[in-house]
Amino acid sequence: xxxxxxxxxxxxxxxxxxxxxxxxxxxxxxxxxxxxxxxxxxxxxxxxxxxxxxxxxxxxxxxxxxxxxxxxxxxxxxxxxxxxxxxxxxxxxxxxxxxxxxxxxxxxxxxxxxxxxxxxxxxxxxxxxxxxxxxxxxxxxxxxxxxxxxxxxxxxxxxxxxxxxxxxxxxxxxxxxxxxxxxxxxxxxxxxxxxxxxxxxxxxxxxxxxxxxxxxxxxxxxxxxxxxxxxxxxxxxxxxxxxxxxxxxxxxxxxxxxxxxxxxxxxxxxxxxxxxxxxxxxxxxxxxxxxxxxxxxxxxxxxxxxxxxxxxxxxxxxxxxxxxxxxxxxxxxxxxxxxxxxxxxxxxxxxxxxxxxxxxxxxxxxxxxxxxxxxxxxxxxxxxxxxxxxxxxxxxxxxxxxxxxxxxxxxxxxxxxxxxxxxxxxxxxxxxxx
Length: 434
Known about the structure:
Layout: H1 25-39, H2 44-50, E1 55-64, E2 70-81, E3 87-93, H3 99-115, E4 122-128, H4 136-149, E5 159-163, H5 169-183, H6 207-223, E6 231-235, H7 239-250, E7 254-260, E8 263-266, H8 273-283, E9 293-295, E10 307-310, E11 329-331, H9 340-348, E12 352-354, H10 356-359, H11 362-376, H12 382-407, H13 411-430
Helix pairs in contact: 1-3, 1-13, 3-13, 4-5, 6-7, 6-11, 6-12, 11-12, 12-13
């Protein structure tokens, strides 16, 4: 399969002269959108609609610190497209949060939900802060004030947040409670990724990693790589990376490299993933783990392996290191780990890339399950959750590979084509309100 034009010049449609900046996360993502839209012969009017977010909110969040001082933080919430259904997307607390990043992630969520054919649109949110400098009380006040500032856009039928970078079940509980207090009744379906006791779903925490495992397993089968003994390297050992590593090890894969922000580790004979997970539970990070060799962080991406899973940061595979990657398969557990310029290099090298909007869609799929369970007031057992997740991920992988073969493009472009066509189809059916 070949599709190297994610690095070609941007398409020009009537009245729209676009200059793409690969370092801008929104434009980097939209460069793939542009080529997929061209392959679909997307109507210029629909193109213009789909290239713009529905709503971008910027709010000031004043809170009182524990020492009595007032500090004002900046928060964002972007609903990119909700024509297929409720906006869906996480909230992150991080100093690197920008409006461009949040908009790009909201667009990714739009395509991701359409790709796995669940009735959601795409949203994303974030607060510019360093949560490690905030006490529990300050973090709660920040969360609740942020929620109140964007409450008009939130709701089970309009926009449903979930955990993301530096947020978790506890933060979702605060958001749900704040929203419920304003509505004067308990509204469990306003967020997903909640504690089980508050209407959360079994299997939600592991869902993204489980989806990555399913994609890695099926990609290896397509490429003729035996799963038993396959060498896997995973960048990122948080929730996604550690769960993926654990599940792949259970299938018989050899996890030869893992890393987090503290260190990168390599062991050609395989790392005991259960032992490494236990180490992190007691020490927070992988740093100091004794049963593997410490290697430079960037080297983790270029170790000799069958499957590479970047499950940490955006833009880690670039034109500077793509030619050094020795993996035969890449499963993008993180959002946007590969830049458009790197796509061409990987294509030319024959690397089989399962893109982020497919590879890490397990999380939003089980978030959808949680939303359905909350709205129905009936909850599923873990076997049911996992079996339904398996079916959606396997079916989506098959649909994408079929699209790729039919159009002679790679899986990333095929994924965008399938997702864009599904969103565009709803726009055509609903028409333009005026």
